Amino acid sequence: MHSNLFDRYHDKQSFLHHLDPRVKVVLTVAFIVSNVLLTDGAWLAFACAWSLILIANLLSQLGWSFTLRRSFIALPFALAALSSLFEPGGPALSSFMFLGAKFTITYFGLLRFSSILIRSWLSVQAAILLVAVTPFPDLLHALEHLRVPKIITTIIAFLYRYLFVLTDEVLRLMRARQARSAAAPGQRSGGSVMWRANVTGNMVGQLFLRSYERSDRIYNAMLARGYAGQIRTLHAHTLTRRDWWFGALAIALILSLQLIGR
Amino acid sequence: MLISPTPLHIPEVYLSLPVALVCWIITALTLSVAIRRTNQSLGERQIPLMGIMAAFIFAAQMINFPTGVGVSGHLLGGVLAAILLGPWSAMLVMTAVIAVQGLLFQDGGLTSMGANILNMGLLTAAIGYGFYRAALGRGRMTKLIFAGLAAWLSVEAGALATSLELWLSGSARLQVVTIAMLAVHAVIGLGEAAITVAALGFLMRTRPDLVDESSASTQGGRGWIVAGLLVTVATLFLAPFASANPDGLERVALDLGIVPAHPATNLPAPLANYAIPALGNTPISTVVAGAIGLVIVTILIILAGRALRKPQS
């Protein structure tokens, strides 16, 4: 159950899969930045941006609705931006009382809130597609090419590799806790909240010890296999002409989004 | 399935480009210092260790406990990481965790990752280590209390920073988002404090050599106490100011051109008489909030003064 939870890569042989990872990262970031720069209410630009997403979905052979189905993950955070609905400006649309204060939804507020939601929704789909068509180690390698400090990408690489191992540990800890948490029928198990927090803290401490001691063994194993401070890969990424052309075309399309948005 | 421990991961687009860039710059500068410092202290051994520790923090965030009120308590881990690993390593570790959450799980955006790292990684590590450093040379109980306080404050500081960033981007109204965030995270912070204290206590009992003076004192000087104190003071002062007296802060920001002005309107300001409901009208809530902040800061200054004296060994 656990091992494919963290693997967001879908293995296919599509055009996007074969594209150089650097190009994919740059295009994703460019698309997202373009969304950030679009103004409120640029509906035509939003629609065109969404069509670009749909085209990218098709190019990846993952189905046109692939990112759509996974795109509502960022929705809960919309609660934080809810207050922008009440931004003063423009005609008032509706009012209500809450906790003894009067709240008025305004036209500009609604415009702003809906624009934020739509642009965020578009951007998250680009990010979803990026990790679906790029294996994670390749993604990190691309980040290294793009001048992200090597120490950070290497730490992330280790995080990724050992995430599976440590998540197994966590599942074991939680299963053990469950196995020891008997309850009389009809009653909830466990003591007070503080006691439960204490147990959780002990589990975290236990996990730390296991991880810390494991890191010792891992480091020694790496030394025994010739680790000299650098992780080397066999897969050197080279930019082909196809990468350059597609990248240029995509950047041009993204720039045109900005023009449409004016 | 993987729910983030605190609703602090800002997604794409919620931050405007200037705000996101400023946060990125702060994060990049701080991380470059962190990289240099960890290079000096740990050398080549650092990367596997910090990688595993990053996986540990990530996995530890998945352990939860039911609080009985419908939500579960989680660990964010910034303070714990800072106490166990030292401040600079903790910053790198939290950066890796937040980066993977953003890249792989879209828990937090790519453009807003600088802000997310700042809020959840850098501020938490600074507060955590600052407080813990102030408790060095004291008894075990003092250390645990300081750790718990730091954990709670770190969550509040992250929440306040998130609220300010959202407001400066024009994505939220200052007073509403600040009060909501601070209130929700005051409760979440209790869970963080409880788990941090329990974990630290466990480690003090079983492996005191890992949390003793020698490992912590090699990582940072007394300047961290000042850093932790500064972040704490900023949090405690800005929070009541922002939530009880937004007009003052907004007026300053408008004058300085930081916040985009909105088209003038002759509608009545919707939140004119909004106040902390339990405290009645605004002047009183401002005064009370300010007084609470002042008392806490005074206590902190006294404690810091004691800590900055050489502890008797």
Describe the structure in your own words.
The complex is a heterodimer of chains A (262) and B (313). Chain A is 63% helix and 5% strand. By secondary structure, chain A is mainly alpha-helical. Chain A has two domains: 15-145 and 238-260, no CATH class; 159-179 and 195-224. In chain A, β1 and β2 form a beta hairpin. Chain A starts with 14 loop residues before the first helix and ends with a helix. Chain B is mainly alpha-helical and 313 residues long.
Key terms for this structure?
heterodimer, A: 262 residues, mainly alpha, 2 domains, two-stranded antiparallel ribbon, 10 helices, 2 strands, flat, B: 313 residues, Arp2/3 complex 21 kDa subunit ARPC3, two-stranded antiparallel sheet, 11 helices, globular, disordered N terminus
Please outline the helices and strands.
The complex is a heterodimer of chains A (262) and B (313).
Chain A: H1 15-18, H2 21-37, H3 43-59, H4 66-70, H5 78-81, E1 92-98, E2 101-106, H6 107-133, H7 136-145, H8 150-179, H9 193-224, H10 241-260
Antiparallel strand pairs in A: 1-2
Helix pairs in contact in A: 2-6, 2-10, 3-6, 3-10, 7-8
Chain B: H1 17-42, H2 46-60, E1 65-66, E2 72-73, H3 78-85, H4 87-105, H5 113-134, H6 140-168, H7 174-206, H8 213-217, H9 223-244, H10 246-255, H11 282-308
Antiparallel strand pairs in B: 1-2
Helix pairs in contact in B: 1-4, 1-5, 2-4, 3-4, 3-5, 3-6, 4-5, 5-6, 5-9, 6-7, 6-9, 7-9, 9-10, 9-11
- Written as H for each helix and E for each strand, in order along the chain, the element string of chain B is HHEEHHHHHHHHH
Counting copies of identical and different chains, the oligomeric state is heterodimer
Q: First CA to last CA of chain B: what distance?
A: 49 Å
Approximately how much beta-strand content do the residues of chain A carry?
under 5%
Largest sheet of chain B: 2 strands, antiparallel
Strand content of chain B: under 5%
Number of helices of chain A: 10
